Amino acid sequence: MKSKKHILLLLAAIVVTMILAPGCSSISxxxxxxxxxxxxxxxxxGFMQLPESAGIDQLSADKIxxxxxxxxxxxxxxxxxxxxxxxxxxxxxxxxxxxQSYGYxxxxxxxxxxxxxxxxxxxxxxxxxxxKLAWRGTAQGxxxxxPDVQERTANVDSAVAQMLAPFPPGMLQK
Length: 174
Known about the structure:
Radius of gyration: 21 Å
Structural class: alpha/beta
Strand content: 25-35%
Distance between the termini: 63 Å
CATH topology: Double Stranded RNA Binding Domain
Mean pLDDT: 82
Helix content: 25-40%
Largest sheet: 6 strands, mixed
Low-confidence stretches: 1-24
CATH class: Alpha Beta
Number of domains: 1
Strand order of the largest sheet: 1-6-5-4-2-3
Order of helices and strands: HEEHEEEEH
Shape: elongated
Number of helices: 3
Number of strands: 6
Protein backbone atom coordinates (compact mmCIF):
# COMPACT_ATOMS: atom_id res chain seq x y z
CA MET A 1 0.00 0.00 0.00
CA LYS A 2 1.27 3.42 -0.92
CA SER A 3 2.03 5.80 1.88
CA LYS A 4 -0.09 8.84 2.54
CA LYS A 5 2.87 11.03 1.55
CA HIS A 6 3.06 9.44 -1.94
CA ILE A 7 -0.68 9.76 -2.50
CA LEU A 8 -0.65 13.44 -1.51
CA LEU A 9 2.35 14.06 -3.80
CA LEU A 10 0.57 12.35 -6.71
CA LEU A 11 -2.62 14.32 -6.05
CA ALA A 12 -0.66 17.59 -5.91
CA ALA A 13 1.07 16.77 -9.21
CA ILE A 14 -2.28 16.03 -10.88
CA VAL A 15 -3.80 19.31 -9.66
CA VAL A 16 -0.77 21.34 -10.83
CA THR A 17 -0.91 19.64 -14.23
CA MET A 18 -4.63 20.41 -14.58
CA ILE A 19 -4.03 24.07 -13.73
CA LEU A 20 -0.99 24.57 -15.97
CA ALA A 21 -2.08 22.51 -19.00
CA PRO A 22 -4.78 24.92 -20.25
CA GLY A 23 -2.33 27.82 -20.00
CA CYS A 24 0.17 26.10 -22.26
CA SER A 25 -2.22 26.01 -25.21
CA SER A 26 -3.63 29.52 -24.86
CA ILE A 27 -2.64 32.59 -26.76
CA SER A 28 -2.32 36.16 -25.67
CA UNK A 29 -3.79 38.84 -27.93
CA UNK A 30 -3.39 42.60 -27.89
CA UNK A 31 -4.43 45.52 -30.02
CA UNK A 32 -3.00 48.98 -30.35
CA UNK A 33 -4.31 51.82 -32.48
CA UNK A 34 -4.22 55.53 -33.17
CA UNK A 35 -6.92 56.85 -30.84
CA UNK A 36 -7.40 59.97 -32.98
CA UNK A 37 -8.04 57.98 -36.17
CA UNK A 38 -11.59 57.81 -37.60
CA UNK A 39 -12.07 54.12 -38.44
CA UNK A 40 -15.65 54.74 -39.63
CA UNK A 41 -14.33 56.01 -42.98
CA UNK A 42 -12.88 52.59 -43.84
CA UNK A 43 -15.10 50.37 -45.98
CA UNK A 44 -12.64 48.38 -48.12
CA UNK A 45 -9.38 46.54 -47.51
CA GLY A 46 -6.62 44.94 -49.56
CA PHE A 47 -3.57 42.87 -48.73
CA MET A 48 -0.11 44.39 -48.91
CA GLN A 49 2.58 42.43 -50.73
CA LEU A 50 4.24 39.94 -48.39
CA PRO A 51 7.92 40.87 -48.05
CA GLU A 52 10.52 38.16 -47.52
CA SER A 53 11.29 39.77 -44.16
CA ALA A 54 7.73 39.01 -42.98
CA GLY A 55 9.02 35.77 -41.42
CA ILE A 56 6.22 33.65 -42.83
CA ASP A 57 5.83 31.23 -45.72
CA GLN A 58 3.20 31.68 -48.43
CA LEU A 59 1.01 28.72 -47.30
CA SER A 60 0.74 30.10 -43.77
CA ALA A 61 0.19 33.62 -45.08
CA ASP A 62 -2.69 32.32 -47.22
CA LYS A 63 -4.31 30.66 -44.17
CA ILE A 64 -3.95 33.88 -42.19
CA UNK A 65 -5.30 35.97 -45.09
CA UNK A 66 -8.34 33.69 -45.42
CA UNK A 67 -9.03 34.02 -41.68
CA UNK A 68 -8.69 37.82 -41.87
CA UNK A 69 -11.05 37.97 -44.88
CA UNK A 70 -13.63 35.91 -42.98
CA UNK A 71 -13.49 38.23 -39.97
CA UNK A 72 -13.46 41.51 -41.91
CA UNK A 73 -16.21 40.42 -44.33
CA UNK A 74 -18.39 39.44 -41.34
CA UNK A 75 -17.96 43.01 -40.05
CA UNK A 76 -19.13 44.50 -43.36
CA UNK A 77 -15.76 45.34 -44.95
CA UNK A 78 -15.09 44.43 -48.59
CA UNK A 79 -11.91 43.09 -50.19
CA UNK A 80 -11.40 45.61 -52.97
CA UNK A 81 -8.83 47.58 -54.94
CA UNK A 82 -8.31 50.40 -54.46
CA UNK A 83 -8.62 49.82 -50.72
CA UNK A 84 -9.19 52.21 -47.83
CA UNK A 85 -6.75 50.22 -45.69
CA UNK A 86 -4.00 47.75 -46.39
CA UNK A 87 -3.38 44.58 -44.40
CA UNK A 88 0.25 43.68 -43.67
CA UNK A 89 1.41 40.46 -41.98
CA UNK A 90 4.48 39.80 -39.84
CA UNK A 91 5.51 36.66 -37.98
CA UNK A 92 8.33 35.74 -35.63
CA UNK A 93 9.21 32.86 -33.39
CA UNK A 94 11.62 32.22 -30.57
CA UNK A 95 12.62 29.42 -28.24
CA UNK A 96 11.30 29.95 -24.73
CA UNK A 97 12.72 28.21 -21.66
CA UNK A 98 10.16 27.52 -18.94
CA UNK A 99 11.43 26.77 -15.43
CA GLN A 100 8.96 25.46 -12.86
CA SER A 101 10.04 24.80 -9.30
CA TYR A 102 7.82 22.80 -6.99
CA GLY A 103 7.67 20.88 -3.78
CA TYR A 104 8.74 23.25 -1.07
CA UNK A 105 8.03 21.78 2.31
CA UNK A 106 7.96 18.35 3.83
CA UNK A 107 7.79 16.31 0.60
CA UNK A 108 10.93 17.67 -1.00
CA UNK A 109 11.20 19.62 -4.18
CA UNK A 110 12.43 19.79 -7.70
CA UNK A 111 12.71 21.83 -10.83
CA UNK A 112 11.25 21.10 -14.27
CA UNK A 113 12.86 22.81 -17.24
CA UNK A 114 11.27 22.70 -20.67
CA UNK A 115 11.69 24.53 -23.94
CA UNK A 116 9.11 25.29 -26.59
CA UNK A 117 8.67 27.48 -29.64
CA UNK A 118 6.61 30.62 -29.15
CA UNK A 119 5.18 32.40 -32.17
CA UNK A 120 4.05 35.99 -32.58
CA UNK A 121 1.70 37.03 -35.36
CA UNK A 122 1.21 40.73 -36.09
CA UNK A 123 -1.51 42.11 -38.32
CA UNK A 124 -1.15 45.76 -39.31
CA UNK A 125 -3.88 47.91 -40.87
CA UNK A 126 -2.38 50.81 -42.80
CA UNK A 127 -4.40 53.79 -43.95
CA UNK A 128 -3.84 53.90 -47.71
CA UNK A 129 -4.43 57.68 -47.98
CA UNK A 130 -1.68 58.57 -45.52
CA UNK A 131 0.35 55.33 -45.68
CA LYS A 132 0.45 55.32 -41.85
CA LEU A 133 -0.16 52.50 -39.43
CA ALA A 134 -3.55 53.00 -37.79
CA TRP A 135 -4.15 49.64 -36.05
CA ARG A 136 -2.02 46.68 -34.97
CA GLY A 137 -3.11 43.34 -33.55
CA THR A 138 -0.74 40.79 -32.05
CA ALA A 139 -1.22 37.19 -31.02
CA GLN A 140 1.44 35.31 -29.11
CA GLY A 141 1.52 31.75 -27.87
CA UNK A 142 3.18 28.37 -27.78
CA UNK A 143 3.36 26.68 -31.16
CA UNK A 144 2.17 23.10 -31.56
CA UNK A 145 4.74 20.46 -32.40
CA UNK A 146 4.05 19.07 -35.88
CA PRO A 147 0.40 20.17 -36.21
CA ASP A 148 -1.60 18.70 -39.08
CA VAL A 149 -3.31 20.94 -41.62
CA GLN A 150 -6.63 21.01 -39.74
CA GLU A 151 -5.00 21.90 -36.42
CA ARG A 152 -2.86 24.61 -38.04
CA THR A 153 -5.92 26.12 -39.76
CA ALA A 154 -7.96 25.99 -36.53
CA ASN A 155 -5.13 27.68 -34.59
CA VAL A 156 -4.84 30.46 -37.19
CA ASP A 157 -8.63 30.97 -37.32
CA SER A 158 -8.82 31.20 -33.52
CA ALA A 159 -5.89 33.62 -33.20
CA VAL A 160 -7.20 35.93 -35.93
CA ALA A 161 -10.77 35.87 -34.55
CA GLN A 162 -9.52 36.82 -31.07
CA MET A 163 -7.24 39.52 -32.47
CA LEU A 164 -9.93 41.14 -34.63
CA ALA A 165 -12.84 40.76 -32.18
CA PRO A 166 -12.61 44.39 -30.94
CA PHE A 167 -11.98 45.84 -34.42
CA PRO A 168 -12.85 48.52 -35.38
CA PRO A 169 -12.12 50.24 -32.07
CA GLY A 170 -14.73 52.48 -30.55
CA MET A 171 -17.45 51.46 -33.00
CA LEU A 172 -20.47 49.21 -32.66
CA GLN A 173 -19.88 45.86 -34.35
CA LYS A 174 -22.00 45.25 -37.46
